[in-house]
Amino acid sequence: MQALSPRWAVLALSLVLTGCAALTRDPPVPPPISRAAPFDFRQIRFLPFEDGATIRETIERSFREETPENYTTGPGGERVYNYLAVSGGGSDGAFGAGLINGWTENGSRPHFKIVTGVSTGALIAPFAFLGPDYDDELKASYTTVDSNRIFIPRGILPLLWSEAMASTEPLEELISTYMTEAVIDAIAAEHAKGRRLYVASTNLDAEQPVIWDMGAIASSTSPDRMKLFHKVLLASASIPSMFPPVFMDVTIEGKKYQEMHVDGGVFMQSFFVGSLVDLPKTIRTAHPDYTGKVEQHLYVLRNGWVSPSPQPVQRALPSISMRAILSMLKVSGVNDLWRLYLTTRDDDVQFHYVAIPADYVPSTIEQFNEAEMNREFDYGHEMAVKGIPWRTAPPGYAAPQGAVAPE
């Protein structure tokens, strides 16, 4: 997600510089962090910086255990695997929600083997994972809400002893409304068929990204599975300093610790698991009897812009700070597209991405403005109905012959 307004961004910076009294908390996890696990849960998350072997094993298992619906058969009899990565972007997630709905209406939306999400993308990902039957819920979650259903701003004085500028109680309620037990059961059922749904958050203590296996959480027999499922989605969308961090209670050898988690966008705006596993080798090993061709596609929905948007900046702290913060977020998203492009090339995966076009001008810079979110939803929907203009090379790349040059 993105900053809510220049005034809030500058206020956050001022509070950091002046310093506020720290709130009490349980002790953080001592490294290595991979030893820790939430109560009653095992193998439901991965730390790519510390423990790549664990996530490789679960991805390999997903191909061994998959049912035929995990892939489609191409015109030449080849097996086709489709993957989806949904980026962060705050209320611009309405664009991605509209795009997915329009993609269904167009009739070209594929069935995805793996879906990943970050921040607002983490809130979209479960619906995208479950398929067209959940398009109505996805649409409602981005076209019937405004800022009052996402956060409650705090007053100036409470900020002096608070950890964030707003409460996310409305967002917690919204997540609970849409991520029902029936939805979580449906995700567990798809997980059992070999499909995977991953969401990223940031462990701020450890300065590491955490990849959560949402299907494994949904499949757990723990009575806290729904609580943890909701908590992970909230953590992935909790903008540092704007929204409160989410604390995860974990244990190491029976001793209790606490982790501070915030928006996954601190580390990455979008991600895929290809960099952690040799996908072509994994597929061949899982299906030794299949000797035909394998085709793979990664689709990246960028809930934001990737092209420069020139505009004059006033000589004032709010203007300079806000412009710099938003530029850094945009460049972070662009860098992720480059990373994904390079890793997919190594795994023989065809890369496709779409972003909000440069010529789309929002009606307001206010985040979670209901009218603007509906406008973005309609724009994404119309674009997809006509046929999504996928790009096959990252922004600024001199595309090889046959690729579509980026804007």
Task: Describe, in plain words, how this protein is organized in 3D.
It is a single chain. The chain is α/β, with parallel strands linked by helices. 38% of the residues lie in helices and 17% in strands. The chain is built from 12 helices and 13 strands. The chain has helices at residues 6-18, 52-64, 93-106, 120-130, 135-143, 169-178, 181-192, 214-219, 225-236, 279-286, 317-346, 370-386, and strands at 37-38, 45-46, 72-73, 79-86, 114-118, 152-153, 166-167, 196-203, 208-213, 246-252, 255-263, 294-302, 349-355. Strands 1, 2, 3, 4, 5, 8, 9, 10, 11, 12 and 13 form an 11-stranded mixed beta sheet that branches. Strands 6-7 form a two-stranded antiparallel sheet. A hairpin with a 5-residue loop joins strand 3 (72-73) and strand 4 (79-86). Helix 1 crosses helix 11, helix 2 packs across helix 10 (279-286) and helix 3 (93-106) runs parallel beside helix 12 (370-386). The chain is globular. The two termini are 23 Å apart. The mean pLDDT is 90.
Give structural attributes:
407 residues, alpha/beta, 11-stranded mixed β-sheet, two-stranded antiparallel sheet, 12 helices, 38% helix
